[in-house]
Structure prediction request, 153 residues.
Amino acid sequence: MNNVKVEPFKVIGIAVRTTNENNQAATDIPALWEKFMKENVLDNIPGKIDNTVYSIYTDYEKDHTKPYTTLLGCKVEHLDIIPDGMIGQSFDGGNYVKFTTKGDLSKGLIINEWLEIWKMDLGRIFTADFEIFDQAKVQNPMDAEIDILIAVK
Prediction:
């Protein structure tokens, strides 16, 4: 893990309100990914900077144990045009701790990293945490590399 500074950015995509309580996110987030793929959301995002997909956790009610919003989308130049069924949101950026996890996406790669992160005392501020799915690094899902950025004080 290392400390990084994230510049403000804008994202357009699709979202779901969920919670880790009763393992609800384990149902809601895969369903959101399925919708993202099935409805070809990536190709319908206007003004996207590139095809890197961001899975953003934001609008926390309190912390990771309470409801939050998961937004799947891409960074965009502006929020002038937001297609029906999608949302656009601006993020302030700030100080982050970056974790990089490598391995098989089908074997719980991401959730296992989150389980470790949740145990750490990072000084989290619960504004917007996110995963970065860089096309080049996830081409082979059995040997993927995902960056997870956690907002900190």
About this structure: The two ends are 16 Å apart (CA to CA). DSSP finds three helices and eight strands in the chain. Residues 8 and 149 are 14 Å apart (CA to CA).
